[in-house]
Amino acid sequence: MNTQDIVILKDQAVADIRAAGTPADLEAVRIKYLGRKGLLPVIMEGLKDAVPAERPEIGRRANEFKQEVGQALDAAKAALTAASSAATRGHFDTTIPGAWRGLGQLHPVTQVIEEAIRIFSMLGFTVADGPDIETEYYNFDALNTPGDHPSRDTQDTFWLDSGELLRTQTSPVQIRVMESRKPPVRIIAPGRCYRRDTTDATHSANFHQIEGLYVDRKVSMADLKGDITFFAHQMMGPNVKVRFRPHFFPFTEPSVEYDFSCHVCGGVGCRVCKQSGWIEISGAGMVNPKVFSKVGYDPEACTGYAFGMGVERIAMIKFGIEDIRLLYENDIRFLSQFA
Ligand code: PHE
Predict the structure, then answer these.
(1) How many domains does the chain have?
(2) pLDDT of residue 117
(3) Ligand 1 center to residue 195 CA distance, Å?
C-alpha cells in the first residue's frame, strides 16, 4: 500500500464516519479501520514490504491516518451523544416512579378557628382583629375592670417596659370595634392571648381565644344561649350539650361561664374532662351598660351579648387531645393525625 492508497483510505474512513447514524454504526467503522483486524494493521504490515527509501513517508502517512481517523471518530461520537440527549430533553418518561412530596395541613388550632369563622358567618358575623400588644385602657379600663382587680396583677399579666401589656384576653377587640363603628355590630375576633400561667396539661402562657360581640336593639340572653348552642352543635355534632353557670365578669352583666359536654367520653367522665363529663369553654354575658358608655354607645338604646371561647379547649375535646402542650410541640407525628 503506497502513500496514495493511504490518503484515499483516509478519505473513505472520514466518509464512513459521517454516514454513521448511531453509536453502534460508529463502533463498526472504528473496528473496520482501527481495529486489531482492521485496515490500519494492514498498512503497518505493508511497511515491511516497501522500498526502504519510501518507508519513512509511508510511516508518516500511516500515523497521520491513525490520528485523524481517531479524532474524527471521537468528534462524531460526541456529536451523536449531544444530539440524543437534546432529543430526550423536554420529554416526560411516565415509567419513572415519581418523587413523593409530603402535603402540609392546617394545625388543629387553625382548623378550629377556621371552622368557627365558617359557623358564625352563617349567623351573619364577620371577623375583626386587634393587636397582641395592648394598652391598659383597652385590656382593662374600658372593660370596666377596676384598678384593684386581681387579673391586673403581675401574676397574670405580662407587662412591658413601655407600660403596655400582652393582651390577656381578646375582649379589648370589643372596645376597638365599638369605637370604630355604630351598632348594629356582629363580629368574632380570633387571636392569641397571654397570661403568666404555669404550663400544665390544660394551661399554657400563650393560648387562643375567639371573642364574639353582638350589639343591636333587642339582643337578649336567649340569643346568646341559642347562638352558642348552635355553634356547639355545628362544631362538635348534634349530641353535645351546653351548660351555662352564673359567673362574674366586670364587662358583662349578667355573666356566665359555659361548658360543653365532653365529646371524648360522651359525658361519662375521662382524663380529658378530668372525670367531670364537662369542659369549660370560657365566659360570656350581656354587655355591661358601663362599657357601652365608654365607647359612646347609648346604653338605653342598645343591648348586646359578648362571649369568649378557648380555642385549645375546643380543639382538645374535638380531637381527643389530653395535653394542651402537644399542640405547641410541632411534632409532625402528632399533628399529622388531624388532617
Ligand atoms: N374575656 C373573658 C376571659 O378571658 C371571657 C369573656 C368574654 C367573658 C366576653 C365575657 C364576655 O375569661
Answers:
(1) 2
(2) 98
(3) 14
